[in-house]
Specification:
The longest helix is centred in the last third of the chain and has 17 residues. By secondary structure, the protein is an alpha+beta fold. It starts with a strand and ends with a helix. The chain contains five helices and five strands; from the N terminus they run ββαβββαααα. It binds FE2/S2 (inorganic) cluster (2 copies). The site of one FE2/S2 (inorganic) cluster (FES) has 11 residues, from loops. The site of one FE2/S2 (inorganic) cluster has 11 residues, from loops.
Length: 161
């Protein structure tokens, strides 16, 4: 097909080159070309946060970026969080606190929180609450997620992640 472009990035530690239409969003490219379907698409217009990933360490909404804009970047998706069988401390905390409902928002919430807490490990409860408000969750009421994030924050500090 004409008009396709090659995009090369590192995703979850692996260098990938994909061929996409210039208008392909990064979220669609990750799901359809890289088969990383943990990145969910809800609104597809930057509102819900379900598509949040880390781009060069910063949480971004992958539906708002064209894949071509990520050329040369390092991406982390929810599939890249665990270390083999060992879950990331925030993943483990969500599990331990039963802080998942349908799970549709969960990858985006995780990536948002991992990005924020990696950069700012000492975020207080008010800041964590504001952070959570950036992503929509229709199931949990956020309280269990907040408790889990606070526990995961302590675990992240303890293991230096
Ligand atoms: S799908 Fe990207 S913000 Fe909703
Ligand atoms: S767990 Fe269902 S939308 Fe958050």
């Amino acid at each position: 097909m004409t008009g396709m472009v090659d995009v090369t990035f590192e995703v979850n530690g692996e260098r990938r080159t994909i061929r996409v239409e210039p208008r392909t969003s990064l979220a669609d490219a990750l799901r359809d070309e890289c088969r990383l379907t943990g990145t969910h698409v809800g609104c597809d217009e930057g509102v819900c946060g379900a598509c949040t990933i880390l781009l060069d360490g910063a949480p971004i909404r992958a539906c708002l970026l064209f894949a071509v804009q990520a050329d040369g970047s390092a991406i982390c998706t929810v599939e890249g969080l665990s270390d083999g069988e060992t879950l990331h401390p925030l993943q483990q905390a969500l599990l331990d606190h039963n802080a998942v409902g349908c799970g549709y928002c969960t990858p985006g919430l995780l990536m948002l929180a991992v990005g924020a807490l990696t950069r700012e490990p000492d975020m207080d409860e008010a800041a964590l609450t504001r952070l959570l408000g950036a992503n929509l969750c229709r199931c949990t009421g956020y309280q269990t997620v907040l408790r889990a994030l606070k526990a995961g924050q302590i675990a992240m500090r303890a293991d230096g992640s």
